[in-house]
TrEMBL record:
Residues 7-304 form the FAD/NAD(P)-binding domain. It comes from Nonomuraea zeae. Residues 323-406 form the Reductase C-terminal domain. GO terms for cellular component: cytoplasm. Its cofactor is FAD. It comes from the Bacteria. The keyword Lipid biosynthesis does not apply. The keyword Zinc-finger does not apply. Residues 393-411 have a biased composition (Low complexity). Residues 393-422 are annotated as: Disordered. This is NAD(P)/FAD-dependent oxidoreductase. Pfam families: Pyr_redox_2, Reductase_C. The lineage of its organism: Bacteria, Bacillati, Actinomycetota, Actinomycetes, Streptosporangiales. SUPFAM superfamilies: FAD/NAD(P)-binding domain, FAD/NAD-linked reductases, dimerisation (C-terminal) domain. Signal peptide: none annotated.
Length: 422
């Protein structure tokens, strides 16, 4: 074995595999790389788990993060099927549940997140399901095929996609959310209302401003009882109430953790041997006042790539405009920015017509945007938001002004600058 034990990556998924690829292919790193994953599968992508893979329109091959032969070709050791259970950062060793130990010079922690559990009576009945991994998706697809009455709890991105999937399987579908609109924290009333209309147009029974009191049944689910006293029949309940970062290993290793593993703008943690990336990392983003933890595919790829450079002592600053995509009822929604503070929404075009875009402004500066079925728009919107300059609402609203022409000539001020009174 080489004198330098190399890099261990904990979490064999999107951020972890992307980092392994960047280490070998972008940086020509030639020391050992070990990719540790608790799942038995090669690193795979999760977005299709609530879309094509769930619906049966795409197969497992389409999920691969990297070509299966990459790992052997690039001499990346895979240690799959057992979680890392102990991380000693000073001794620079990680131990897995099966007793295997790996030494390292540096470690990347990319352990992702897991579904937040519903805490109500009946939540452990058969027929209550969550979706995070490939095995969950396979079981959920079988359950959706067999179900008739489906209740989705939570109308965020995942809940909205799963309501659409449930309708595609032909199920009676109810969505319950305590907030006044789907995706309320991201989109607010007006645009969330638009998502609500799409659900209702597709036959979803959307119960807003209501919560779950209990799940009823003897052995398996029979109904959901809501806080306002409704009883909704159900033979399948899908819980989509957010995710919790997998920080236990990092916390036990002594790293600073607060709603995610805290990192600086280069993904460095509170220990010099450890870097964190992807859904588990809460990074100090130069655009925002507080550290952000972002559960987006795009963020995991950007983090994975950047983490490779940081692990090698060439830390880039990560200041990308966050980007999320979602497919619901055959439409693609793309959202850029973060739902931080805004004081005005400007709408371009009519809903359900090509080019429809919503802009969220803070002091006249576009800080977020949503576009629906508008191929190619995301890059222009990213540039506009990244510029952090005031834009004329009349031009933003005018579909006749091409998106590339919207970039104003004014000094840039990020949300962080505005809050700091700059
Ligand atoms: C169903 C679903 C649909 C999604 N759809 C979209 C979408 O449409 N658009 C979008 O932008 N984003 C989407 N996302 C989010 C996106 O997939 C995530 O942001 C991305 O997967 C994060 O990658 P990651 O590598 O940081 O974490 P993860 O993908 O969560 O991977 C972390 C890995 O680490 C493993 N692990 C955890 N603890 C340990 C341990 N102690 N030892 C070893 N391994 C460990 C986990 O089991 C997992 O395999 C979706 C996510 C889900 C679950």
């Amino acid at each position: 074995m080489s004198a330098d034990p190399g890099i261990v990556i904990i979490g064999a998924s999107l951020a972890g595999a992307t980092a392994a690829q960047a280490l070998r292919l972008d940086h020509g790193y030639d020391r050992p790389i070990t990719l540790v994953g608790d799942e038995p599968h090669l690193p795979y992508q999760r977005p299709a788990l609530s879309k094509g893979y769930l619906l049966g329109t795409s197969g497992p091959g389409a999920l691969d993060v990297l070509k299966p032969r990459f790992y052997a070709d690039q001499d990346v050791t895979l240690a799959l099927g057992a979680p890392a259970t102990a991380l000693d950062l000073d001794a620079r060793r990680v131990r897995l549940a099966d007793g295997t130990e790996f030494p390292f010079t540096r470690v990347l922690i990319a352990t992702g997140a897991r579904p937040r559990r519903l805490q109500v009576p009946g939540a452990d009945l058969d027929g209550v399901r969550y979706l995070r991994n490939r095995d969950d998706a396979e079981h959920l697809a079988a359950a959706l095929r067999a179900a008739g009455e489906v209740v989705v709890i939570g109308a965020g991105w995942l809940g909205s996609e799963l309501a659409a999937a449930s309708r595609a399987f032909g199920n009676h579908t109810t969505v319950i959310d305590p907030l006044p609109a789907p995706l309320y924290y991201v989109l607010g009333d007006q645009l969330g209302g638009l998502v609500a209309r799409r659900h209702r147009d597709q036959g979803v029974n959307l119960l807003l401003g209501d919560g779950v009191e209990a799940i009823l049944g003897t052995r398996s689910v029979e109904a959901v009882q809501t806080i306002t006293g409704r009883t909704i029949p159900a033979d399948l309940v899908i819980v989509c109430v957010g995710a919790t970062p997998n920080t236990e290993l990092a916390r036990a290793a002594g790293l600073h953790v607060d709603g995610g593993i805290l990192t600086d703008a280069h993904l460095r943690t509170s220990h010099p041997a450890a870097v964190a990336a992807g859904d588990v990392a809460r990074h100090q983003h130069p655009r925002y006042l507080n550290p952000v933890r972002i559960e987006h595919w795009d963020n995991a790829v950007i983090h994975g790539t950047a983490a490779a450079a940081t692990l090698l002592g060439k830390p880039p600053t990560i200041d990308h405009v966050p980007y999320f995509f979602s497919t619901q009822y055959g439409s693609t929604l793309e959202y850029l920015g973060l739902p931080t503070i805004w004081d005005r929404i400007v709408i371009r075009g009519e809903h359900a017509t090509p080019g429809f875009t919503a802009f969220w402004l803070d002091h006249g500066i576009p800080v977020a945007a949503l576009t629906i079925d508008h191929q190619g728009a995301a890059d222009h919107l990213r540039t506009l938001i990244a510029a952090a300059r005031p834009a004329a609402p009349r031009q933003l609203a005018d579909p006749g002004t091409p998106l590339p022409d919207l970039l104003p000539d004014a000094p840039s001020r990020t949300s962080r600058d505005l809050r700091a009174g700059a």
